[in-house]
């Protein structure tokens, strides 16, 4: 009997499942390829350490199940012998051992051959999208884990049992169709090592091990011209390149622990029935803060890319549903304002038109702009965000009846502004205006005679467009 790929949903990949189930945001900008590879190798070293540590306290064999692609994830002989291993590959296992995907540690007795014992092999179908990913799925009595390295999305990992369960449902079709007898054996191990939520200390330990194993990332130091040489005029884009390198390193170092904290909060919230209401609220606040800081770092990094011609990527402008954007964004923006004791009132028309923009980037920029606006206001202020149409444009106006506080602002490089009084770091208004311009719109800032500021955003309407518009 023949099966169509679409019938079995084998077009789904490990990366897509992580985005769907684990809540990874598609707007999160992937790191450069070399940094994503560094995270992948660091995660392998960390998970290998956890597996070795587990063997020291367990005599059971197998001690767990390890699925990976396109080669065995660990090269340690004890792990290969004590854990049931299986690989997904378009080639034979001996060919895989020689290809460039193989890790330097994946050897036995110093020879370039991977131990054949206890390794089940599942060939992938032609044109299977899994061939474009490196991934692993690990089941043990103490924890369940998955990670993936994808060209488009970058590196992702999760300890969430729901993610592991969904991945198994997706992978079992591939195994059952290609090697049904080997699959029956692995299915028994699946029943034996059902996905479990890990102890939060184990997740934290994994993150520390991973960070310790990451390759060092340093920003290049600009060379000062010799005194006898005439100083050349340097373009702004050349000056900003060291800033971009530094921001890449900072984004990498900040996002990794924040992502770990967010993972742990999700695991804790799955047990909210066992927690008090006060504890649940605190955990939700931690999760919200992690999400906001991750989004802030991503927006800063994207702005740096757009300010550097050599790093620019095309912004895809498409008809965008404002209804969905405001439905998801309004509660988040209001919570953001409440933390500063500011009330945000969002006034929307009965029907929201479509606009031509990049939905993920527009959400990020609006969030950053609202934060910039509200943090300047005194406690107890009220802010109104009103949406109307103006000809063939959408008009979004942010204003308040309170005077903005006079805060000392210090420029940091060509992109960022720092407020020592509040400890807040954000994009400067010039860069923010450039972002709205890249989104097909514009930002205007008016200073009323009474002293209040009014931020007005214009975006092109997209009611009559039926196809995406590329910029």
Give a structural overview.
This protein folds into 3 domains: about 5-200, no CATH class; about 235-310; about 315-470, 2-Layer Sandwich (Heat Shock Protein 90), CATH 3.30.565. It has 13 helices and 17 strands. It has helices at about 5-10, 15-20, 35-55, 75-80, 95-100, 160-180, 180-190, 200-215, 235-270, 275-305, 320-340, 360-375, 430-440; strands at about 65-70, 85-90, 120-125, 135-140, 145-150, 155-160, 315-320, 345, 355, 380-390, 395-400, 410, 415-420, 425, 440-445, 455-460, 470. The strands form 4 sheets. The protein has a 6-stranded mixed beta sheet, sandwiched between helices. The protein has a 5-stranded mixed beta sheet with strand order 8-10-11-16-15, with helices on one face. β2 (about 85-90), α5 and β3 (about 120-125) form a beta-alpha-beta unit. α6 (about 160-180) packs antiparallel against α7 (about 180-190) and α8 (about 200-215) runs antiparallel to α9 (about 235-270). The longest helix has about 35 residues, at about 235-270. The protein is elongated, with a radius of gyration of 26 Å. The two termini are about 45 Å apart. Mean pLDDT is about 75; it is low at about 1-5, about 90-115, about 215-240 and about 465-470.
Top keywords for this entry?
single chain, 42% helix, alpha+beta, 6-stranded mixed beta sheet, 471 residues, 17 strands, disordered N terminus, 13 helices, 3 domains, elongated, Heat Shock Protein 90
Number of strands: 17
Shape: elongated
Strand-pairing-aware structural class: alpha+beta
Percentage of residues assigned to helices: 40-55%
Report the total helices: 13
Proportion of residues in extended strands = 15-25%
Amino-to-carboxy terminus distance: 46 Å
Rounded to an integer in angstroms, the radius of gyration calculated over CA atoms is 26 Å
Count the domains: 3
Mean of all residue-level pLDDT scores:
76
Largest sheet: 6 strands, mixed
Q: SSE string, helix = H, strand = E?
A: HHHEHEHEEEEHHHHHEHEEHEEEEEHEEE
Strand order of the largest sheet: 3-2-1-4-5-6
Low-pLDDT runs: 1-7, 92-117, 217-238, 464-471
């Amino acid at each position: 009997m023949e099966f169509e790929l679409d019938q079995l949903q084998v077009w789904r990949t490990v990366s897509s499942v992580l985005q769907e189930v684990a809540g990874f945001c598609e707007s999160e900008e992937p790191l450069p390829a070399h940094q994503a590879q560094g995270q992948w190798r660091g995660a392998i070293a960390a998970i290998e350490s956890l597996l070795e540590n587990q063997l020291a306290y367990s005599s059971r064999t197998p001690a767990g199940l390890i699925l990976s692609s396109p080669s065995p994830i660990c090269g340690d002989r004890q792990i290969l012998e004590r854990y049931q291993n299986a690989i997904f590959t378009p080639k034979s296992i001996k060919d895989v051992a020689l290809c460039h995907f193989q890790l330097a540690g994946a050897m036995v007795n110093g020879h370039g051959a991977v131990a054949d014992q206890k390794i089940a092999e599942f060939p992938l179908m032609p044109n299977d999208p899994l061939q474009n990913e490196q991934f692993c799925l690990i089941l043990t009595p103490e924890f369940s884990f998955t990670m993936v390295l994808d060209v488009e999305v970058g590196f992702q990992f999760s300890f969430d049992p729901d993610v592991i369960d969904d991945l198994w449902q997706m992978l079992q079709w591939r195994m059952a169709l290609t090697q049904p007898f080997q699959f029956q054996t692995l299915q028994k191990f699946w029943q034996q090592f059902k996905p479990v939520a890990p102890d939060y200390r184990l997740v934290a330990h994994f993150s520390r091990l991973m960070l310790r194993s990451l390759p060092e990332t340093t920003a290049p130091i600009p060379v000062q011209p010799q005194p006898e040489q005439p100083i050349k005029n340097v373009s702004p884009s050349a000056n900003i390149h060291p800033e971009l390198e530094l921001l890449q390193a900072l984004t990498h170092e900040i996002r990794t622990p924040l992502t770990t904290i967010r993972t742990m909060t999700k695991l804790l919230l799955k047990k909210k029935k066992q927690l008090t209401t006060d504890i649940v609220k605190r955990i939700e606040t931690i999760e919200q803060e992690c999400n906001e800081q991750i989004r802030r770092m991503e927006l800063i990094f994207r702005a740096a890319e757009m300010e550097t011609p050599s790093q620019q990527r095309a912004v895809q402008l498409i008809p965008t549903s404002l209804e969905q954007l405001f439905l998801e964004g309004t509660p988040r923006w209001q919570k953001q304002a409440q933390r500063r004791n500011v009330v945000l009132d969002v006034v929307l028309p009965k029907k929201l038109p479509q606009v031509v923009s990049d939905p993920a980037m527009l959400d990020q920029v609006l969030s950053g702009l609202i934060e910039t606006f509200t943090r300047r206001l005194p406690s107890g202020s009220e802010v109104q965000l009103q949406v109307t149409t103006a000809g063939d444009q959408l008009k979004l106006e942010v204003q308040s009846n309170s005077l903005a506080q006079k805060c000392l602002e210090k420029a940091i490089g060509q992109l960022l502004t720092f407020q020592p009084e509040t400890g807040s770091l954000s994009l400067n208004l010039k860069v923010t205006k450039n972002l709205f311009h890249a989104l097909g719109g514009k930002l205007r800032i008016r200073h009323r005679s009474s002293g209040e500021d009014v931020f007005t955003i214009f975006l092109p309407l997209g009611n009559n467009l039926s196809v995406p518009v590329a910029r």
